[in-house]
Design brief:
The chain is of the alpha/beta class. The protein has helices spanning 3-9, 40-52, 75-84, 96-105, 142-156, 174-188, 201-212, 224-228, 230-239, 249-253, 264-279, 301-306, 313-318, and strands at residues 29-34, 62-67, 89-93, 111-115, 135-139, 162-167, 191-196, 217-220, 244-246, 258-262, 295-300, 321-323. The strands form two sheets. The protein has a seven-stranded mixed β-sheet with strand order 7-6-8-9-10-11-12. It has a five-stranded parallel β-sheet with strand order 2-1-3-4-5, sandwiched between helices.
């Protein structure tokens, strides 16, 4: 879905401009702060969660959408704009850098985050069960499943002596996650090559460098940037004939070879529910950080065939979904 369609989804410019028509109505305003370029499905899931909690966008709640378009340095200013508008809740979606920017901007406005990091380690909350302060939300704990994702890729392409890892600056704890990945790779007996990718232009550069270094497979970290650019990324991997595993099902749907991770859209819905509960008067300090209970392993056989790969039967049996 392109940006024009996304603007139509969120109700046009009324939600993109402060002081628009809805602001004249006596309804609470939710500030939706997003780090990457628009991801319409995630926004729609968040809005569904609000509805589930009793708040219908455009009727008894308004949403002020702000996107950093993949530039983390823009987040503090955007968070400050939402604080100046005195929104009732800030939904900080897409990477721990988004939530950290919102937290730095206010200690009073409730914040509901959705990211993949450990919120205690990153300093967002005091504890999972009793967050304290004005911040709570949903953590995908992506780092805890990175080792499993690497193992699945190794099972499919055991001949790959070195695996590339794509990281992105929208994940503040990528250093710690990279170290954990190196430990997992050591156990598997493979090497890793790390690439910091911050734009679509970096895709072909990284794949060309991988070819020069004879790197045989790709591990794509969970990042809002990658999911917002999933189609160009999946297409680039296919064009360069590189087997890759991704963090979320949306990549496999877009044609990626494999994915393993939490249901990100359901997590966005849960964040919307939390925002609605806070609008009803509950305190973020008393709402425990939610964690995913199910992780989805998806295999795309069409992509495997295009790469000349035979997916081992144990992987097919383990898959929650097989795309043919």
């Amino acid at each position: 879905m392109r940006r024009r369609e996304f603007i139509a989804l969120i109700g046009g410019a009324a939600l993109l401009r402060p002081g628009a028509a809805l602001a004249q109505q006596p309804v609470p305003v939710v500030g939706y702060l997003y780090s990457a370029t628009p991801y319409p499905e995630e926004f729609a899931a968040f809005r569904d969660g609000l509805t589930q909690a009793g708040f219908v966008d455009g009727q008894n709640v308004a949403i002020d959408y702000r996107s950093a378009e993949g530039s983390a340095e823009r987040l503090p200013a955007l968070a400050a704009e939402l604080v100046a508008r005195r929104v009732s809740v800030i939904a900080a979606i897409g990477g721990d850098v988004t939530a950290l920017a919102a937290k730095a901007a206010t200690t009073t406005i409730p914040i509901v985050f959705l990211n993949g990091s450990d919120p205690v380690q990153s300093g967002l909350v005091a504890s999972i069960n009793r967050p304290g302060g004005n911040v709570t939300g949903v953590s995908l704990f992506a780092g805890t499943v990175d080792a499993k994702r690497l193992e699945l890729l190794h099972q499919l392409v055991p001949q790959a002596a070195t695996i590339a890892v794509f990281n992105n600056a929208l994940v503040a704890e990528s250093g710690a996650r990279s170290q954990a990945l190196e430990n997992a790779a050591r156990t598997l007996g493979v090497g890793l090559g790390f690439f910091n990718v911050g734009s679509e232009e970096d895709f072909d550069k990284a794949f060309s460098a991988m070819a020069e270094q004879k790197i045989g497979a790709l591990f794509v970290s969970g990042s809002p940037f990658f999911i917002s650019r999933r189609q160009p990324l999946v297409d680039a991997a296919a064009a360069h004939k590189v087997p890759a595993i991704y963090a979320w099902r949306e990549f496999a749907i877009a044609g990626g070879l494999m994915s393993y991770g939490a249901d990100v859209l359901d997590s966005a819905r849960q964040a919307g529910v939390y925002a609605g509960r806070i609008l009803k008067g509950e305190k973020p300090a008393e709402l425990p950080v939610l964690q995913p209970t199910k992780f989805l392993f998806v295999v795309n056989l069409k992509a495997a065939k295009a790469l000349g790969l035979n997916v081992p039967q144990p992987l097919l049996v383990a898959a929650d979904e097989v795309i043919e």
